[in-house]
Amino acid sequence: MQNYSPAIKRLIDGGLFERLPATFAVYSLDRIRDWQRLFPAEQDYFERLFGLLERSSDEAVAEVFGPLRQVEQKMDIRGGIWKTKDFTLEHVDFLQRNRHLAEWRQAIAGIFAQIDPLLDAEVARAGKPRLVAVVSPAELPMGPDRMWTRIRDRGRVVPLAVAEDEPLRDYLARLLSGAAVSGRHPSIFDLYGEQRSESQFDTWVVEASDPLMRLARGFVGWTGLSFERMVDLRQALMKDVNELVTQEKIPGPRQLGERLQKMNPGALRRAAGRDPVMQDFLQSVLLNGNGTLLINNTFVEWASLQAIRRARPSVLLASFGIRNKVKPFSSLLIYSDQEETNPIPTQADMLGSYVDLEVFYQYIWQECEKYAEYRRNTAYLFIGTGMDGLFVIAPPDFPLLASDTPQRPEEVFLSCAAWLGVDPPAAG
Questions:
Q1: 157 beta partners
Q2: What is the pTM of this model?
Q3: CB 121 within 8 A of CB 114
Q4: In this structure, are strands 378-384 and 389-393 parallel, antiparallel, or unpaired?
Q5: How much is the CA Rg of the chain, to the nearest whole Å?
Q6: Following DSSP, what letter does each residue of 273-303 receive, concatenated?
Q7: pLDDT in tens, the chain (428 residues)
Q8: 384: β partners
């Protein structure tokens, strides 16, 4: 038996999964098999999902799962592999080869179309204010009038009163801590991590370099990831993957992807502090084939999306940078250091970074809005470092929207603190 929570163990011992259709039960048990590798938000979801099924009447459960049971009869599921508790490639092959696969998928979608609104309503009743801040680098060759174009109709630009002679290093410090760098005031994520976070996974900072982490007073109550600071880990993983490709003579990306899922790199274990949750998270982000080992902004985007999907943080700060122009590479070399595999000189790609980020802004906002935790109670701040305005999507009662006059950066910080219900440091 896995080390489940008491609630899940009680449901398993009580026979809940034996009363569910075989395909749904086996797949569900596989999803929670590595319980210790799930984020608290994921564990909470499964506890609520299976708890809802347990306390629902037999008639209601039969009605919800009726279409799936009918499809399973057509698929001729009678024991065999479906008596196990592990969802294997044999199960996947069975489903994909079955001529009723489309009906099965439709039945599964129909189940969650009925269940998810009930679970979302539970989340909404326990809702709380949340903050998502997305930071763009100062080097972008654009002003506020050409930024955030894909989401422009969702919010408005809030003008900022920024001193012309203020050092650029103090721009983010004043916005996110209410004081210049020299003031060493705690940042908004320090404050939330110390005062409100229920776990370290409730507050995240994901960066291309480390302008935000340099504002931190410590690593208490929040999770921080920096592409630049992870250079040793990324290089170690590139080395491991290239040795794998060479020694096992892996022919293509599909076979490599399957093999990477089984890897257990020592470098990941060390980087995650042997925390199984973070080890699993880093592996899924860095070894997914999306270029996150090579491209700083791709790493920030993908790590942020995965944090939203899996951890559902109350506070997320994502800071992008300027990416380099991508050199030509094969599908297998996406895991290789481009400086070593391609002699073409590295060049910063200003325009490409701008185009990418316009898409990434929308992706992050849309991903949050998929989940009940973020709807109607999240303030989104899109910050262009050094700019005299920032873009805000927020509920009407977000304090920053109360004034049409230019806001000092310190006032932005105080608005965020008030919104999140944290106490800023005393003035003076």
A1: 391
A2: 0.90
A3: no
A4: antiparallel
A5: 24
A6: TT-HHHHHHHHHHHTSSSSTTT-HHHHHHHH
A7: 467 889 999 998 999 988 899 889 888 888 898 899 999 999 999 999 999 999 999 999 999 999 999 999 998 887 677 776 666 778 778 888 889 999 999 999 999 999 999 999 999 988 899 999 999 999 998 888 899 999 999 999 999 998 888 888 899 999 999 999 988 899 999 999 999 998 999 999 999 999 999 999 877 889 999 999 999 999 888 888 877 777 777 666 666 666 777 777 788 888 888 899 999 999 999 988 678 888 999 999 999 999 999 999 999 999 999 998 876 554 445 556 655 655 566 688 899 999 999 999 999 999 999 999 999 999 999 999 999 999 999 999 999 998 889 999 999 999 999 999 999 987 65
A8: 136
Instruction: Note whether 18 and 79 are within 8 A (CB).
Output: no
The residue whose two tokens read 């080869």 is 97
Half-sphere exposure of 219 (CA within 13 A, CB side): 7
The CB density around residue 300, as the number of other CB atoms within 10 Å, is 28
User: What number of other Cβ atoms are within 10 A of residue 348's Cβ?
Assistant: 12
Q: Which residue has the tokens 């809702």?
A: 127
Helix (H, G, I), strand (E, B) or coil at 87: coil
